[in-house]
Each structure stands twice: as structure tokens, then as C-alpha cells.
Design goal:
The protein is α/β, with parallel strands linked by helices and 210 residues long. It contains eight helices and five strands. The chain binds P1-(5'-adenosyl)P5-(5'-thymidyl)pentaphosphate.
Amino acid sequence: MKGRFITFEGGEGCGKSTQVRRLKEALEAEGHEVLLTREPGGTRLSELIRGLLKDEREDPPCDRAELLLFLAARAQLVRNVIRPALDAGTWVVSDRFSDSTFAYQGYGRGLPLDVLRLANDFACEGLRPDLTVLLDVDTETSRARLRKREAATNTTADRIEQAGDAFHARLRQGFLEMAAQEPNRIVTIEASGTPDEVWEKVWKSLTPLR
Ligand code: T5A
């Protein structure tokens, strides 16, 4: 039997990575083989591209180059990691996937959605998630969480996190619109509560797959 493919989406600091880790543990406790991955990243090449996307400031990618770099990283991850894992019956949980491209490069940067759909389908060979958990927080909460993390880890915001509030408001709106268009695949969770409160909702949203 093929594995299930679950993705987590949302704006900056919405708490995906925190919830993804808990989900892996919970699914493994139920006896599933689980592979955790993230986008951009998850293969050597894709991690190299991740570094360029997040930190290149001397010659920052223009919007179209940014899109193509995200898609190149995704093509490599799908072909070499996600597909083989699903075929082997492993459940794959990904911290971001295609919806991030529509939200960030489409709604955020303003690239045409019809072009994005075609290019994305080509990159991921038509692979779609079985379930997408959208963690929704307002821009203020997201900024506050990131500031707190930066202070705790002595780091600074990356190139994309530094985009202005209007950009982040557009992509949030984009995620919510996509969720309204595909209610059977995308579950929206209000994620401003504590990690335990959010986890309860995340676990419940998995019921149809388990
Ligand atoms: N991108 C990505 C695109 O533009 N297009 C694409 O196609 C793709 C795939 C990736 C960047 O690339 C962009 C989106 C991103 O800008 P990234 O570093 O992977 O960069 O960034 P994020 O995916 O945004 O991941 P983050 O780690 O920054 O945020 P998370 O995963 O949402 O949040 P998390 O769990 O790390 O939590 C953030 C902080 O908040 C705390 C955590 O402890 C942590 O300090 N926290 C909470 N605090 C209070 N209450 C809660 N419920 C909390 N949950 C977590």
C-alpha cells in the first residue's frame, strides 16, 4: 500500500516545524513508517538551493529566478525522495510544499497563477498532497514569534522573512483563498494558541487519513 503525503503550510513563524515534529512521533507510535522533509531542502542539491534562496543578498534572485529555484529544489526532492518513499509505503510529512509557491510567488510576488500551476505540475510530476494542514496566524503573532526566536538563537531574519507586512498579508490571504477553494484537501487551523492547543487540532484533522 502506498504511503500518505501530508503537507504543512502557513506564513512565517506559524509553528509548522513544531507541529510537524510532533506529528512524526504520533504517527510512528501508531506503527507507521514516517519520513519528515522540508521545502526548500531535503536533498543535497535542494539544500544548496535553499541557502541561495534564503541568504543571497549580493545578487538576490529576481522573482522569476526565485520561482525557478524553488521548483528546481522541489523537482529533485519529489523525484529522489518523496515518490520513492510513498511507493515504499512510507508516510511523508513535508514542512511546506506547492501551496507555498502559490502563496509566496503567486499572491505575494504577483507572478501569474496559471503559469505557476503549469510549472509546478511539471516540477513535481503532478504529485499532490493527500492532506494539507494550513496553520493560520495573523501577521502580528507571526512577527512576535520570529522576534522571540531571533533573540533566543541570536539570528536575524532571512531574505524572505524581511519582505514587508503587505507582502505577508497578501500571502496569508492567498493561503486562505486556496483553502476555501479546496476544502477537502486543505484543513485550516487557527494557530495562535499554545503548541499543545494547536497540536490537539492538528491531530484531529488527521482523523480521515488514519
Ligand atoms: N518559500 C517556500 C517560498 O517563498 N516558496 C516556496 O515554494 C517555498 C517551499 C522557507 C522560506 O521559503 C519560502 C517560505 C519561507 O520564507 P524556512 O526557514 O523553512 O524558509 O521558513 P518557514 O518555513 O517559515 O519556517 P520557520 O521555522 O521560520 O517557521 P515555522 O516552521 O512556521 O515555525 P516554528 O515551529 O519554527 O516556530 C517558530 C517560533 O515560534 C515558536 C517556536 O518555538 C519558534 O521559536 N512557536 C510558538 N510560540 C507560541 N505558540 C505556538 N503555538 C508556537 N509554535 C511555535
